[in-house]
Design brief:
alpha/beta, Collagenase (Catalytic Domain), Jelly Rolls, six-stranded mixed sheet, 6 helices, 18 strands, globular
């Protein structure tokens, strides 16, 4: 039986039944992504180490930067001691390795970790920072074709060194992610997001190996239009109390449109899109492009997005993406009213 450590995802309750998407890379369906947990493309995400030796911190920092320096994801990690850091890393050896998914970290109290690196085997730190960038486990791809030997998996992972409960095993290995649309799946056996498990864990003889570096697909995917593409979007200013709307277009698949507006009079504001293009909206602020306030898919008329919220004074950022990141394009308009 294997003696490898395995990581756990920290899935917030609202994601338990949220549809996830499998996105094509180089014409093949592979990586699993939580699209509503993506950070704003090009943003600087602050990382604070809550504990650990200088050697542990340097090791984790090096692997985190693989996603930036090797994969060229359009996102930045700033390692800081700021109490406002979005990602907070502990090194508690009694708590295994785990991470919250992407922007879910913003919902965790600032005095608590959003990631733990209780062990640093192989590419563990890179794997956890993959979760922090919104990537899921490759082996939990809903169409992955893995036929688990449930009894063997539970017998192994419930013992040392993992000592997981049956609930943890189901959530992190046996259960598949929910799906809204799937185009098929081809395993990337080299992905850093894939566990190593023996053929005895499956009834169809499937096994995987330990991956300690980013695969070619990992690198291509995290920097693709599905995640953090190199092209940066221009930020368009919006007027508050607008009756006509500002015209905009998702011109290329995966494009991300960014808008900014300033609230001078606190109170209820409505941000909405109009048109036939199926878009998703995220609202960040005030005065912080990483603080997610709300998000919406079809809250408006038809497939339009709509967010209504009580806003304090300050600057707000609106992110608009097409629902279908792989091929969706189209025109729409956006307006802010109160």
């Amino acid at each position: 039986m294997p003696k490898e450590h395995f990581c756990t995802e920290r899935i917030l309750p609202h994601r338990a039944h949220t549809p996830q998407r499998i996105t094509r890379v180089n014409g093949r369906d592979r990586a699993v992504l939580f699209p509503t947990a993506l950070w704003v493309t090009g943003a600087t995400v602050r990382v604070k180490f809550l504990s650990g030796t200088s050697g542990q911190q340097a090791y984790a920092m090096k692997q985190a930067m693989w996603w930036i320096q090797e994969a060229h994801a359009n996102i930045k990690f700033e390692f800081t001691q700021s109490a406002e850091a979005e990602i907070r890393v502990a090194f508690d050896e009694s708590d295994g390795a785990w991470s919250y998914i992407g922007t879910d970290a913003l919902q965790i109290p600032k005095n608590q970790p959003t990631m733990n690196l209780g062990f640093l085997d192989g590419g563990t730190a890179a794997h956890e920072f993959g979760h922090a960038l919104s990537l899921g486990h490759e082996h939990q791809n809903p169409e992955g074709g893995i036929q688990w030997n449930r009894e063997a998996v539970i017998a192994s992972l419930s013992g040392p060194p993992n000592n997981w409960s049956v609930e943890d095993i189901e959530e992190n290995v046996l259960d598949k992610y929910a799906v809204d649309h799937v185009r098929g799946t081809v395993f990337d056996p080299d992905s850093i997001m894939l566990y190593s498990f023996p053929a005895s864990w499956t009834v169809n003889g499937v096994s995987t190996k330990a991956n300690e570096t980013l695969s070619v697909t990992d690198k291509a995917y995290i920097s693709s239009t599905a995640a953090y593409p190199s092209a940066s979007a221009a930020v368009v200013s919006l007027s508050v109390v607008d009756t006509s709307g500002t015209p905009a277009t998702i011109g290329q698949p995966g494009e991300e449109d960014l808008f900014i507006f300033t609230v001078t009079t606190p109170g209820r504001h409505v941000i909405q899109t109009n048109g036939k293009t199926d878009v998703m909206m995220k609202l960040f602020g005030p005065d912080n492009p990483l603080t997610l306030i709300a998000q919406d898919d079809d809250g408006g008329t038809g497939s339009n997005a709509r967010i209504a919220a009580n806003l304090s004074t300050g600057k707000y950022l609106v992110q608009i993406r097409h629902y279908n990141k792989t091929s969706g394009t189209g025109a729409y308009s956006i307006l802010v009213s109160r």
